Automatic annotation (TrEMBL), chain A:
Keywords: Cell cycle, Cell division, Cytoplasm, Cytoskeleton, Mitosis, Nucleus, Phosphoprotein, Repeat, TPR repeat, Ubl conjugation pathway. It is found in: Cytoplasm, Cytoskeleton, Spindle; Nucleus. The gene is ANAPC5. Residues 30-168 form the Anaphase-promoting complex subunit 5 N-terminal domain. The mammalian APC/C is composed at least of 14 distinct subunits ANAPC1, ANAPC2, CDC27/APC3, ANAPC4, ANAPC5, CDC16/APC6, ANAPC7, CDC23/APC8, ANAPC10, ANAPC11, CDC26/APC12, ANAPC13, ANAPC15 and ANAPC16 that assemble into a complex of at least 19 chains with a combined molecular mass of around 1.2 MDa; APC/C interacts with FZR1 and FBXO5. The lineage of its organism: Eukaryota, Metazoa, Chordata, Craniata, Vertebrata. This is Anaphase-promoting complex subunit 5. Residues 256-355, 460-493 form the Anaphase-promoting complex subunit domain. It comes from Phascolarctos cinereus.
From TrEMBL, chain B:
Component of the anaphase promoting complex/cyclosome (APC/C), a cell cycle-regulated E3 ubiquitin ligase that controls progression through mitosis and the G1 phase of the cell cycle. The APC/C complex acts by mediating ubiquitination and subsequent degradation of target proteins: it mainly mediates the formation of 'Lys-11'-linked polyubiquitin chains and, to a lower extent, the formation of 'Lys-48'- and 'Lys-63'-linked polyubiquitin chains. The APC/C complex catalyzes assembly of branched 'Lys-11'-/'Lys-48'-linked branched ubiquitin chains on target proteins. It comes from Vombatus ursinus. Belongs to the APC8/CDC23 family. This is Cell division cycle protein 23 homolog. Pfam families: ANAPC8 (PF04049), TPR_11 (PF13414), TPR_8 (PF13181). The lineage of its organism: Eukaryota, Metazoa, Chordata, Craniata, Vertebrata. The gene is CDC23. TPR repeats lie at residues 329-362, 363-396. Residues 30-268 form the Cdc23 domain.
Length: 757, 595
């Protein structure tokens, strides 16, 4: 208990129990690094205009600002920086510092005494109110304020600073010597060993950081967390750094916030809450200057504290708690008339609303308000949410695209690159929802090959955001659908690299990968494999998991269990208004009915699915439904009718559908042709059968693409029969032989051929 | 461990020649040991341990001349170092540590060596405290540390490995390790120290500070001596295991330490911790009579006086202590409490600040300061003070509770839930946190959770007796009249069983509700009994009378009228069957408990 360091207690800046933040805000404490910069300035002054060339002078001037405002750096790095702009000055600075550090205390005192001379005189070298002048005056003032023992300490610190640089230089020299022929191998080996720690040193300073260094470290890590998580420190090491930082500077509230973000990364609800609240407790102090609950001061931070807490609970899926916290934030914001905060609250409110039900009244209201208060970010975020909701609600594509286009205008105007990315990702998703794979593909590629605005601004590649993950996942799924499994797995590999398993958006690709694998397993008839994947999918999305569980059960002929599960799922999805899933479930139910040979019962189910998918314009599902419908009609003995509706579906399927679906569609067409040919006169019948054979060939090609052997086997069997009917013995025998090969490879399940779609 | 002990013990035959007995059968022997160790501690400048031992020795019966312990034998080495030691001890006593260390350099005897190392350690500590005041800006202030620690650790660990350290040396080594935040190593070393020199209270006390929970305590292998009993009692108090602590202290008193002011004060503190205010107060008063110039623990005493709002007593205590020594932490704290009771909160905060300046390690002052700022409505300063308290000691439940209260005042009931829950975690059986939690849930309209909290608060023993009323009112709101009535009945029973009829405001409400409840249930006897009770309270008198009239009317309409009214308040049989509160403490299981 008593081991907590004593800085907490002896706090000369504390009055009335509050540590005044602005006192800590003073960053102008004299440090050895600052002395080195002062030496540089005075050398520049001494050299005058003549000694340094114009070009060098300009380079030096450019260097000065970052030196004055940046964090403290080591002496060697400072030398290097000066050396790059003006070698001769670097030399003289080095000599001055050496003299001062190896001399006596009075040298430093003398130096500071001389500093003020630069202002005096008729034609001063430095103007008093210039940037450099202000810096000089700050430093002189800060130095003059130091007590005797502090001055002495500063001097010893300077000596240490200098000696460290010397040591490093000496070590480097020694290393240079090592590279002489005989010691070469050893030298390189050792250097490699040395490189590792020095590389780490760059990111994380093990000792206490100065205020500016700490600020720099925090803002760097925070922006990395936001934009490119893989480049940030790993959660564990970042936490270690933060703990270290807080140990030496417990008043650094921002570190707590970063620690909160870091805990979010690893989904640690306990420590993230702890850090968040700690941050706001601390922030309240620093903003305590004005005691009013007004715009500034701690009333403001209180509101945002509650709001952040709501966000935290929302992220962890505690919607009820989130709502309570949000109510609190709203109430406080209302009491103090903070419209901006209220607006933020409102946008969170509709997010919450979305999670729990789907009314978009709030959302529309929020967008209007946000536009009114001139918060473009929130406004277009709102529009995007609105579009998403409308898409699920079955609004037409042109309206949605219009809305997105309008918000895009806003984004480009305000350079909200993050939102542009989201917008494109959303377009991809919407096109996919509508079953237009080509358009989706195109949008996905647009985002991936677009140069982010951020890249121009900061030099940070902002490509590890959620939108990229979404787009890449879509891309992988699209490729998988088209049978390009190698490409899909390559995309997934890339995803894994970009979003390592413990990062925020890793769940997206995990789900996507397992879905693809599941699809493969089902096609290949490896049901046990599929079954084991179901658990993984359930962990990530219970709905998808349940649906897939039912499919596996169905495939394993456990129909009653499958039926039970599907009914439950249906009710749940209808309640959640997840139309996409409802239609899928309906299709699965219909399939169950055929398996029980109850095609008449399947028909109304299918019609319901068709109506739904038409209403919501889910073209992909609509075509699938039509396929099933046609199949049922075929079985019920009305192949002509089936052919009619198939014509409706075949076009979109061939244009946008998955390869497997294309194959199934062609196969079905062929079946229908054959079935309806029975009624024809012989000449026409032969024509019909021949065209069926052609269709079957096409289907076979499609199946071959996705390597669906079972289907190929069926097609071959069918083709053989047709050739037989047409009396083409040679072709028949070829097909029969191929069939036999495949049949030996694959065990037969004994399901009649005709009972398959 | 046994082998290690025997080796180390062999190196210091003088101190524990006779060994320490494991029980209290021979008080004379104990007294002798105490006197001896007091002398040894004093010789080494360990004033607090010496003081403790002397105090305890004083409480035992005096020894006859023949049995007085002989002065410790002087070895050859001691004789060699005697001059240096004498000089250094003199310097040490006037706090010239560096000078003392200088003259002790190279001394071989254990005593001189200890004093040498100890003065180096103290010199480092002193310099560190001085440095902190003028460091080079805020950047450096966290970096100030005792420079001597590292060197001391290296030297001591060498000696430790060579098994050349005696009990005092081990103690110092442990302290150095603890200061370097090497807690695990420090614990091991302190345990070793207690094995070699069980009489040295300082080592035990350090161990107390390092042990954070009961589990840790279980896994320590401690020497089997009578000192262990004192240690266990002390640590039970620290770990809030008050029942066990009180038992231990009682048995110590029974054995013959009844006069020890140390034990008396510890018992008083224990009673304070379980909020048995009256007992604690009487014990403290007794203690003040025995030891009128005592300053230790007087801050706890003042807390008690504060809680009972005993202004004159507190004022007397404050003035008295101020006369004795006004620059003591405890004195400042008492004065702070005094001002707080007089509602002069600025001055109170000032005194708590002064206490912190006098001893930065004094934890309670931060929390108390927080309370003062709360009183001054300076919420941000209060939050800061509480946060400081938490940073110093994460287990300070009062600070968590205070933070919760602050946010509650700021009308953020959801936000403060977190803080109350932290406080509740630390003190699971304290009804105040539970009631506070319940109130927050009530404000958030989470009535189910609120009910759970209130019931639990009642079940763990409600201090303020408000949980039941609140529970009853909740049931009333939810129109669960049966449960509401039961709660009111239990509440009334509780109040009356207490004996002292404090003017409880809610008693009348309870009776009024019960009267109406029975009236609705057509239990005329009970209804009229309750209505009559109502008449004895000012605010419900009229209602009571009106209800009585109504009952009379209805009864007259009914066929029989039993005019005799059961004089005392009785419960209907169905309810009284389970009226002894079951007090089953089920897991609280709040649905919305996240972190």
């Amino acid at each position: 208990m008593a081991s907590v360091h004593e800085s907490l207690y002896f706090n000369p800046m504390m009055t009335n129990g509050v540590v005044h933040a602005n006192v800590f805000g003073i960053k102008d404490w004299v440090t050895p690094y600052k002395i080195a910069v002062l030496v540089l300035l005075s050398e520049m002054g001494r050299a005058g205009g003549s000694a340094i060339g114009l070009l060098e002078r300009r380079r030096l001037n450019q260097l000065l600002l970052p030196l004055l405002q940046g964090p403290d750096m080591t002496l060697t790095r400072l030398y290097k920086a000066i050396n790059e702009s003006c070698p001769q000055l670097a030399n003289s600075v080095q000599i001055r510092i050496k003299l001062m550090a190896e001399g006596e205390l009075k040298d430093m005192e003398q130096f500071f005494d001389d500093l003020s001379d630069s202002f005096s005189g008729t034609d001063p070298e430095v103007h008093k109110t210039s940037v450099v002048g202000l810096f000089l005056r700050h430093m002189i003032l800060a130095y003059n304020k130091l007590s005797f023992s502090q001055v002495y300490k500063l001097y010893t610190a300077l000596q240490e600073y200098f000696q460290n640089a010397e040591k490093k230089a000496a070590a480097e020299e020694a290393e240079m010597d090592m590279t002489s022929p005989e010691g070469r191998l050893v030298g390189t080996l050792e250097r490699e060993d040395l490189d590792v720690p020095s590389g780490e040193e760059e990111i994380s300073c093990s000792g206490p950081l100065s205020q500016k260094q700490a600020e720099y470290f925090l803002s760097q890590q925070a922006s990395l967390l936001k934009n490119d998580e893989t480049k940030a420190l790993t959660p564990a090491s970042l936490q270690k750094e933060l703990n270290n930082l807080l140990k030496f500077n417990p008043d650094f509230a921002e570190a707590h916030y970063l620690s909160y973000l870091n805990s979010l990364r690893v989904q640690d609800v306990f420590s993230s809450t702890h850090s968040l609240l700690h941050y706001f407790d601390r922030l309240i102090l620093t903003g305590a200057e004005s005691k009013s609950n007004g715009d500034e001061g701690y009333g403001r931070s209180l509101r945002y504290a509650a709001l952040n807490l709501a966000a935290l609970h929302c992220r962890f899926g505690h919607y009820q708690q989130a709502e309570l916290a949000l109510q609190e934030a709203i109430r406080i914001a209302q009491e103090s008339n903070d419209h901006v905060c209220l607006q933020h609250c409102l946008s969170w409110l509709y997010i919450l609303e979305q999670k729990r039900s789907d009314s978009c009244v709030l959302l529309e209201h929020s967008v209007k308000k946000a536009v009114h208060f001139g918060l473009p970010y929130l406004a277009s975020l709102g529009i995007q949410s609105l579009v998403q909701q409308r898409a699920f609600a079955g609004k037409t594509a042109n309206k949605l695209m219009d809305a997105l286009k309008d918000s895009d205008l806003l984004h480009w105007k305000h350079s909200l690159s993050e939102l542009i990315d989201i917008s494109i990702a959303q377009k991809t998703a919407i096109w996919r929802l509508y079953g237009r794979s080509t358009m989706a593909l195109q949008q996905a590629q647009t985002l991936l090959s677009m140069n982010s605005l951020e890249a121009l601004n900061l030099g940070v590649q902002q490509n590890n955001t959620e939108s990229f993950a979404v787009v890449l996942c879509h891309l992988a799924e699209l490729h998988a659908e088209q049978g390009c499994l190698a490409a899909a797995s390559e995309v997934l590999e890339h995803l894994k690299e970009r979003f390592p398993p413990n990062s925020q958006h890793a769940q997206l690709w995990m789900l996507c990968e397992q879905k693809i694998q599941f699809g493969r397993a089902m096609h290949d008839g490896r049901y046990h494999m599929a079954d084991s994947l179901v658990t993984g999918i359930t962990a990530l999305s219970s709905l998808e998991g349940a649906y897939r569980k039912a499919i596996v059960l169905q495939a394993q002929n456990q129909t009653s269990e499958a039926h039970k599960l599907l009914q439950k799922l249906l009710v749940h999805c209808q309640k959640m208004k997840n139309t996409e899933m409802v239609i899928s479930v309906l299709l699965a139910v219909a399939e169950l009915y055929w398996r029980a040979s109850c095609h008449t019962i399947a028909l109304p189910v299918l019609l319901q699915a068709l109506a739904l998918s038409r209403e919501y314009r889910l073209q992909y599902l609509a075509s699938e439904t039509v396929l099933s419908l046609a199949f049922s009609q075929l079985i019920l003995g009305i192949p002509e009718q089936a052919l009619n509706i198939l014509h409706m579906a075949i076009e979109p399927i061939l244009a946008d559908g998955a390869v497997l679906d294309k194959g199934r569609a062609m196969f079905l067409v062929a079946k229908c042709q054959v079935a309806s040919a029975n009624a024809y006169e012989p000449q026409k019948k032969v024509e019909a059968l021949e065209s069926a054979i052609l269709n079957l060939n096409e289907a076979k090609d499609y199946f071959a693409k996705v390597d669906c052997k079972e289907q190929i086997r069926d097609v071959l069997y069918f083709q053989a029969r047709l050739y037989h009917m047409l009396g083409k013995a040679q072709e028949r025998n070829r097909c029969a032989m191929l069939f036999r090969q495949l049949h030996q490879e694959l065990p037969s399940h004994g399901v009649p051929l005709v009972n398959h779609l | 461990m046994a082998a290690l002990v025997s080796v180390a013990a062999a190196s210091m035959p003088s101190v524990v020649a006779s060994g320490t007995c494991s029980d209290f059968s021979d008080l004379r022997e104990i007294k002798k040991q105490l006197l001896r160790i007091a002398g040894l501690s004093r010789e080494r400048g360990l004033q607090h341990s010496g003081k403790w031992a002397s105090e305890l020795a004083f409480s035992l019966a005096p020894l006859p001349l023949s049995e007085l312990p002989p002065p410790p034998p002087i070895t050859e080495e001691d004789a060699q170092d005697l001059d240096a030691y004498t000089l250094a001890k003199a310097y040490f006593d006037v706090k010239e540590y560096d000078r003392a260390a200088h003259f002790l350099r190279g001394c071989k005897s254990q005593k001189a060596y200890f004093l040498y190392m100890y003065s180096r350690y103290l010199s480092g500590e002193k310099k560190k405290d001085d440095e902190t005041v003028d460091s080079l800006g805020p950047l450096e202030k966290g970096q100030v540390k005792n420079e001597a620690l590292r060197e001391l650790r290296v030297e001591l660990s060498k000696k430790h490995q060579a098994r050349e350290l005696d009990g005092f040396g081990l103690y110092l080594y442990g302290v150095v390790l603890r200061k370097l935040d090497l807690v695990k190593e420090a614990i091991d070393v302190f345990v070793e120290a207690t094995h070699i020199l069980p009489l040295h209270w300082g080592a035990w006390l350090e161990l107390c500070n390092l042990i954070t929970d009961k589990e840790m305590l279980k896994f320590l292998s401690l020497p089997d001596t009578w000192m262990k009993e004192f240690f266990l009692a002390h640590i039970y108090t620290e770990l809030q295991l008050i029942e066990e602590a009180l038992q231990k202290y009682q048995s110590l008193i029974d054995v013959g330490f009844s006069k020890s002011t140390y034990i008396i004060s510890q018992i008083a503190v224990a009673y304070h911790n379980i909020r048995d205010i009256d007992k604690a107060l009487s014990i403290f008063n007794e203690l003040r009579k025995q030891d009128p110039y005592r300053i230790e623990n007087m801050d706890t005493f003042s807390n008690l006086l504060y809680v009972r709002s005993m202004k004159p007593e507190l004022s007397y205590l404050a003035h008295n202590l101020c006369e004795i020594d006004k620059y003591r932490v405890e004195t400042c704290c008492v004065i702070g409490n005094y001002y707080s009771l007089r509602s002069q909160h600025e001055k109170a905060a000032l005194y708590f600040q002064r206490a912190l300046k006098l001893n930065p390690r004094y934890l309670g002052a931060w929390t108390l300061m927080g309370h003062e700022y709360m009183e001054m409505k300076n919420t941000s300063a209060a939050i800061q003070a509480y946060r400081h308290a938490i940073e110093v000691n994460k287990r300070d439940y009062r600070a968590w509770y205070g933070l919760g209260q602050t946010y509650e005042i700021l009308k953020m009931p959801f936000y403060c839930l977190y803080y109350y829950r932290r406080a509740h975690q630390l003190r699971p059986n304290d009804s105040r946190m539970l009631v506070a939690l319940g109130e927050c849930y009530e404000k958030l309209n989470q009535l189910v959770e609120a009910k759970k909290c209130y019931w639990r608060a009642y079940a763990v023993g409600d201090v303020e007796k408000m949980a039941l009323v609140k529970l009853a009112k909740l049931h009333e709101q939810l129109t669960e009249s049966e449960q509401a009535a039961q709660c009111y009945i239990k509440y009334i029973q509780d109040i009356y069983s207490c004996g002292e009829i404090v003017e409880h405001l809610e008693v009348s409400t309870a009776f009024r509700y019960l009267a109406q409840y029975y009236f609705k249930c057509k239990l005329w006897d009970e209804a009229s009994a309750c209505a009559q009770k109502c008449c004895s309270f000012n605010d419900t008198r009229e209602e009571g009378k009106a209800l009585l009239r109504q009952i009379l009317q209805l009864r007259n309409q009914g066929e029989t009228s039993t005019t005799e009214i059961s004089a005392p308040f009785f419960l209907p049989a169905s309810l009284s069957a389970n009226n002894t509160p079951t007090r089953r403490v089920s897991p609280l299981n709040l649905s919305s408990v996240t972190p």
